[in-house]
Amino acid sequence: MADRLDGKTAVVTGASSGIGRASATRLAAEGANVVLGDIDAERGREVVSEIEADGGDATFVAVDVTDADDVRSMVETARETYGGLDIAHNNAGIEGDNDPLPEQSRENWDRVLGINLTGVWLAMKHELPALMEGDGGAIINTSSIAGLAADGSEPYVASKHGVVGLTKSAAVRYAEEGVRVNAVCPGVVRTPMVERSLEANPGAVEAITAEQPLGRMAEPEEIASAVAWLASEDASFVNGHALPVDGGKLA
Fold first, then answer.
1. Is 174 a catalytic residue?
2. I need a surface site. Which of 9, 96, 161, 193 has the fewest CB within 10 A?
3. Which residues form a coiled coil (predicted)?
């Protein structure tokens, strides 16, 4: 398994922390060259150093996923540094505010949809030509169980449902080009985003844990395992799928 992605090149957005960090690390551990994109340059470079210390090859690019030039630069870095692109994990996302809908601001709506959904669309817009230049490849978009059910604030749920729809549409359109497009739909994962929410809601850990069939939250590395599988030839006939990685929460 350590060489399952040997010689492949991947880009990962939101790669400085949480699921993105775990994904970049896992893809590198399985042999891929990884271009990490994130707005947090300091932590992104720390992840690169960790990957290199473990014998992997990684490059950091400062990326705001709502900026077309940044996204284009990330894909071009993969081409120029490693000769092409084989895997893309479009993971960058935010939770936004959780106010009642009548009290939500247009600014919050635009920001959540801009990063969570438009950011994925923009990444795919630039990744697909690069993937099709080679032998095809795999795109894995991070949605959420909120993309499969009403679980969270309205802007967040709408954005994550949109990611699932975008994934399915692209999967059908580009299958003949050798590109598989899937989504992971994590449940509650112990990431900095979730930790912020837990800090603001004392007692929430117990309540969340009680809702989980497995009796705990997921770790980022468990989502990264699903990403690595979807990126690999082990999932060669999996396309257009929104994969819950939720410990049975939606079962």
1. no
2. 193
3. none
